[in-house]
## 1
Amino acid sequence: MQPKDLTDNEAYKGFTNSDCPFLPCHAGVKREFNCLFCYCPLIAYECPGPYQVFTDANGLQRKDCSSCTLPHDGYRASWAFIQKWLARPVIWDGHAQDPRYLPRKKDHSAS
Ligand code: SF4
């Protein structure tokens, strides 16, 4: 086995579990569906994903990541995304996501 820095084999960056009964668990993935980060490593950290906040049965603030595709969209892209945000992790304090990172609501008022 080679250290990853010495190999061109990028198989460690992702895989698709095509036998999973929940696939595709997030809508909108355009590249290979990466299942490697099924449990997102950023769940307890600051991230740029479009999460919503809810309060669980123990009164704790949690992220609802249903509409986030960042850890899943393409093996290389999602690997690079996770590595970048884990390089300087900042503990998430339970705040709502910055509106800059949320999907824009369509304006139906214009005619
Ligand atoms: S919003 Fe996306 S990137 Fe952030 S913790 Fe959830 S799944 Fe991970």
## 2
Amino acid sequence: MEALYQLSYSPERCRQDTGIGGISVHVVTIEQPSSRPSVGARAAGPLSPEEIDSYWADGYLFVEHAITPEQLEALVADFDAWVEESREHHEPYGDTLAGRPRFDLAPEHTAKAPRLRRVASPVEVSDNYLAVVRDNRALDAVAQLIGPNVEFNNSKINAKQPGASTEVKYHQDFLFQPHSNEDLIAVLLFLDDVTLENGPLNVVPGTHRHELFDHWHDGVFTGAVSPQVVADHVADAVPVYGPAGSACLMHTRLLHGSAPNTSDRPRTLFISEYRAEDSKPLQVSHLPSIYDGEVVRGERTNRVRCSTYEMEFPEVPTGASFFSQQAKAGADT
Ligand SMILES: O=C(O)CCC(=O)C(=O)O
């Protein structure tokens, strides 16, 4: 299908003067565009114009059959082998480029009931994972949305074994990875059927067009928004679920989180992040990879494109994953 789709760019900017205790405070709200600026020809791909519009309006898109059945089978087989291997370990293990453990275990992990909750950069230890990040149908969709030139950024597996208490607190991915512009998309690929009970991703549609929320609280980078932000938005959250092999494409500014797995079925996501080739990282990666910056669609242009925003730089994690950062947020965020 031909999907050359030029979208117009008209950010609205409004300024309010607010009097607080006799002090005049200038609150600047930047309403982000609901569509991407036109930066050359869009790539052709699997998404219809309506799906493209829906992505830019809501900040996410659910896509079925994002990989082939053969790709799914290979990814699941490798992950099952890692879960078996984790039975022999009592604490996070393996090495990554960052010198942190590759395989992260939840506190309740035992040999009998393994709770492997995170594999950092599986592409470095599995040809099957590497082949999928380099070529899959969801990536074709990403190229339509932020391409034609697309770079791989990072990848990880987030797993919730049956009954796992693992919860992901509400956050925006961009607050972990400032770039020169915000054309970054996470592809959250379902390696299991995702249901309402096994800890689906919950997203708050439209929040990618609003502010960047602070993820620092009382001088601590918690990797999560404040309880007040959660209270303000949680009623609008929607779960994203569907059969294995589906994917959720998510804008880097979208507010999202996910709940513990209360079912007897696992919930495993393979999450790959991609960025427009002209979006340049402004800080060392929180999830370094030898494949970071590989052009996976289109070509290298040697250009940088900048958008306007303000945020505090994140803390680069020292633990096995961001779960240890989010643990600092307390139980109520
Ligand atoms: O594993 C999940 O449910 C959500 C993952 C997530 O929010 C993230 O990795 O940014």
